[in-house]
Task: inverse folding
């Protein structure tokens, strides 16, 4: 093209040398006007609207210019007739230009799509193609090129009408024994694109035997493309392709155990790593298929025995494959080899995670040991993947003790310079926490919260609150932890967190938890500069349980009122509403508080906030409207909250 389309080169140079957008715009539209004139010049035109007076060189040059203009973002709404003429040509150089232009200039819903369908079908079924008689090798090579261009064009345009009309031809080319490897590769990827556009295009159970035939191909390029197609199909309808598991495991065994691989598919001495990754990803769709059936029904015994014999064979082979990947993968001096090997390794570990508790114990232990090595390396990408995968592996029953061995390393990663690594370390600590190590992990998280980025603080606060509640052996420690969270990062302590504190304290009247919470929160709210969340939870707890500490020095009802009321001026409306309710309860319990509370209610009767106004009016009128016994009954402490099966904090974490 460089030696033939000098005009195209000059046009591109003019655009690159343009001094501004306006100059480029003028040059493009000048060229469009010139091309339009050339296409319509002449005394006669062909029935399809093309200009017969143009030479092959001129037609290709002008179409290339249209393609370049389109790529720059300008609208091109003419020239389709010339593109179609190039498409129908028997010369590869013209056909190539036609298909490139067609793929870029035409969309699936355009009206011109009907005029190109027959031309594309003709190239798909050229003599020498699977549906035709055999021809010479040179003609076959030309036909393969035409087929490949047609297949790529179908994938790029991907309109509904085009899919419905030509998908059968693409399937036929893919499964035909006469198709070459290059054509099969393109047909598989084209069919994947068509299936993504129209998911119900293939009947899975009918198409699975054809895929099984393709999986027996010796060409690794065909296998790689076929696995791309198979993963796309299995992600939507996994049950239709479960029968292909033995073929996939066999290919894995050939690549991993026997190292049988053509030279051109060796990547830094690793046999076709991309194919290995696709094979391992496919197996992750079928965790149940990696477990032997239990022989519990006599009527199905023979079927189960046959099924178990097949399963036992490929499960044993898969165990050997996974074991070899785990034992032979190590950090390499070559970054490219290291990346390829680690990509395979992490997919193998993901397969073990999906396999779950049914995975052989030696595989789970080996994966955990290897991941422990990776989370301590300097390379942040490997450390990130190691932490993320270990968090998944730690959720398998029986893996808790193994992951605890790496607790110190994970705590170090919590201080990493990369925030994404810190996030994964936080996730892993959240999973590995239990009653034995909860206090240390929570204390470390609270200590790191002081220096944590704003982007991760809210998640850290929520997870600390959940762990402190879930694994607290002493609820006083839980209350202390939440108060620390409010002190360090009160802006990130949501209402759900302090509401949960109130629920737990209210629901545990036994022991001294309520008195401890009241005294601790009174101390926390004593400084004038304390977070508003601390004022809210202190107001609620002191209103409910302040009477338990009223006899202590410096904690009388009047002292409690003065500590709370010092925050009134800076409190928002929600906090003031809680404070008013606390004042009402304090004035009901302590005679000395009534003269202090009455002026507050009087000022708030005309508040602009409806909630504050209503509470003040009702609490002030309550003592006049009812006898003391009724008032005391109305203002007594709240009953225990309903115990939910699931914590509201865990629901919020999932959200």
Result:
């Amino acid at each position: 093209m460089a030696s033939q389309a000098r005009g195209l080169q000059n046009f591109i140079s003019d655009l690159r040398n343009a001094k501004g957008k306006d100059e480029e715009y003028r040059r493009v539209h000048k060229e469009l006007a010139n091309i339009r004139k050339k296409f319509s010049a002449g005394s006669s035109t062909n029935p399809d609207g093309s200009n017969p007076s143009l030479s092959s060189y001129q037609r290709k040059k002008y179409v290339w210019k249209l393609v370049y203009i389109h790529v720059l973002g300008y609208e091109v709404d003419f020239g389709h007739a010339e593109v179609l003429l190039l498409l129908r040509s028997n010369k590869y150089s013209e056909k190539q230009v036609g298909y490139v232009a067609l793929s870029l200039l035409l969309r699936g819903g355009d009206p011109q799509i009907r005029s190109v369908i027959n031309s594309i079908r003709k190239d798909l079924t050229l003599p020498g193609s699977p549906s035709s008689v055999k021809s010479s090798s040179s003609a076959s090579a030309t036909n393969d090129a035409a087929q490949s261009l047609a297949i790529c064009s179908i994938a790029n345009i991907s309109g509904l009408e085009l899919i419905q009309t030509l998908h059968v031809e693409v399937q036929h080319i893919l499964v035909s024994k006469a198709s070459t490897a290059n054509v099969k590769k393109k047909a598989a990827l084209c069919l994947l694109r068509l299936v993504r556009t129209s998911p119900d295009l293939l009947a899975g159970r009918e198409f699975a035997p054809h895929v099984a035939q393709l999986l027996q191909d010796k060409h690794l390029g065909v296998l790689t493309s076929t696995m791309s197609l198979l993963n796309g199909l299995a992600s939507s309808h996994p049950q239709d392709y479960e029968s292909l598991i033995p073929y996939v495991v066999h290919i894995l065994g050939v690549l991993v155990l026997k190292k049988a691989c053509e030279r051109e598919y060796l990547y830094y001495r690793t046999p076709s790593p991309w194919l290995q990754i696709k094979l391992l990803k496919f197996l992750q769709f079928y965790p149940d298929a990696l477990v032997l059936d239990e022989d519990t029904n006599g009527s199905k015994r023979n079927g189960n025995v046959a099924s178990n014999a097949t399963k036992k064979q490929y499960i044993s082979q898969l165990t050997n494959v996974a074991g070899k990947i785990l034992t032979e993968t190590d950090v390499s001096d070559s970054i490219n080899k290291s990346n390829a090997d680690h990509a395979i390794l992490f997919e193998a570990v993901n397969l073990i995670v999906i396999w779950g508790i049914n995975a052989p114990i030696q595989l789970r232990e080996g994966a955990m040991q290897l991941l422990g090595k990776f989370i301590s390396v300097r390379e942040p990408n490997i450390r990130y993947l190691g932490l993320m995968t270990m968090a998944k592996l730690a959720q398998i029953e029986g893996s808790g003790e193994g992951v605890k061995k790496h607790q110190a390393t994970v705590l170090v990663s919590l201080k990493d310079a990369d925030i994404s690594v810190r996030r994964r370390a936080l996730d892993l600590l959240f999973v590995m926490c239990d009653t034995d190590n909860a206090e240390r992990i929570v204390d470390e998280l609270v200590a790191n919260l002081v220096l944590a980025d704003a982007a991760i603080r809210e998640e850290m606060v929520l997870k600390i609150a959940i762990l402190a509640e879930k694994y607290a052996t002493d609820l006083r420690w839980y209350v202390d932890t939440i108060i620390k969270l409010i002190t360090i990062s009160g802006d990130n302590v949501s209402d759900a967190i302090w509401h949960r504190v109130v629920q737990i304290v209210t629901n545990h009247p036994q022991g001294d938890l309520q008195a401890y919470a009241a005294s601790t929160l009174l101390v926390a709210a004593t400084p004038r500069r304390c977070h508003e969340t601390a004022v809210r939870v202190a107001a609620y707890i002191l209103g409910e349980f302040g009477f338990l500490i009223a006899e202590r020095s410096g904690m009388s009802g009047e002292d409690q009122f003065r500590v709370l009321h010092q925050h009134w001026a800076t409190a928002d409306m929600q906090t003031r509403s809680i404070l008013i309710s606390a004042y009402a309860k304090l004035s009901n319990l302590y005679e000395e508080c009534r003269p202090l509370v009455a002026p507050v209610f009087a000022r708030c009767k005309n508040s602009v906030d409806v909630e504050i106004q209503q509470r003040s009016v009702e609490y002030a009128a309550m003592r006049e409207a009812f006898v003391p016994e009724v008032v005391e009954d109305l203002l007594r402490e709240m009953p225990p909250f309903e115990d939910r099966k699931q914590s509201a904090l865990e629901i919020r974490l999932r959200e």
The chain has 32 helices and two strands. Residues 131-135, 296-306 have pLDDT under 50 and may be disordered. Residues 23 and 594 are 82 Å apart (CA to CA). The two ends are 56 Å apart (CA to CA).
